[in-house]
Automatic annotation (TrEMBL):
Gene3D superfamilies: 3.40.50.12500
Name by which UniProt lists this protein: Aspartate/glutamate racemase family protein
InterPro entries to which the protein is assigned, alphabetical: Iso_Racemase_Enz_sf, MaiA/AMDase
Pfam families listed in its UniProt record: Amdase
């Protein structure tokens, strides 16, 4: 069959992604990506450590990141993203900036990290109060709280799961239950679902409608920030970060009653 009339595949723009060795949600990342963009993923080397602050430090060492970014340059991405929340907040804001600088030096490319993208997304939404949901242990969760506070964001509620492995197996119902514990309407400007290994794509619209606030997740903000560097938009229906029209919630009758807070 003559297929010459097709003219070959459409040109693709590339986003390089460096993920921890245990990252299992490649498919979820792709759901935010428009058709004309390809993701090129690589992983950090395996280390026999459970999810912890120690692991976060190991998978974010500058030498490790530099090697991963240099490997990605073979396929010529236009931007590179480090898809790990704890690995990019474990050193605080200064550590996150240093990571981006190391990645940019290694690949001579614009670079983003999940935790840097989180702060960028909160600024985009005008959020100064945030509720947090994490799958982490208490020590890792407290480190995230410290990172957010360092940026001048007030944490108004937090729920965590205490997991040290197999985070990608958490069902949506558990994510929703934790979100309900962490945030109530009127108490925060946004809710953040932390960890790139936590499945979140399909629950974001549901939680935004129920909690009546923007709900952002680690994978969502990572893709949103990386694609902004390309001058294009992430795709995701009914997600407030991606569509300003989705940020307006109608006033409910009970909110019109005297004394509503």
């Amino acid at each position: 069959m003559d297929v010459s009339f097709l003219g070959g595949p459409r040109p693709q723009r590339g986003v390089g992604v460096v993920a921890p060795f245990d990252f299992a949600l490649d498919r979820e990342l792709w759901r935010w990506v428009p058709d004309e963009v390809s993701l090129h993923l690589t992983r950090t080397p395996f280390v026999p450590v459970e999810v912890s602050l120690d692991l976060a430090r190991l998978v974010s060492e500058h030498e490790t990141l530099g090697e991963a970014v240099r490997a990605l340059t073979a396929v010529a991405p236009e931007v590179v993203a480090y898809a790990c929340t704890s690995g990019s907040f474990v050193g605080g804001m200064a550590g996150e900036r240093a990571m981006r600088a190391a990645m940019t030096r290694a690949g001579e490319l614009p670079s983003v990290t999940t935790s840097g993208a989180l702060l960028e997304a909160l600024a985009e939404l005008g959020a100064r109060r945030v509720a947090l949901v994490t799958p982490y242990t208490v020590s890792v969760t407290r480190a995230l709280e410290g990172y957010v506070a360092e940026a001048g964001i007030r944490v108004t509620g937090c729920a965590y799961m205490g997991l040290t492995r197999h985070i990608w197996q958490v069902p949506y119902r558990d994510v929703v239950a934790m979100a309900r514990r962490a945030a109530r309407p009127g108490t925060a400007d946004a809710l953040f679902l932390s960890c790139t290994n936590l499945p979140t794509y399909d629950v974001i619209p549901q939680l935004e409608a129920e909690l009546r606030m923007p709900v952002i997740s680690a994978n969502q903000v990572t893709m949103w920030a990386a694609l902004r560097r390309l001058g294009t938009r992430a795709v995701g229906p009914y997600q407030a970060l991606l569509d300003a029209a989705a940020r307006a919630w109608p006033v409910l009758p009970e909110e019109q009653q005297e004394g509503w807070t």
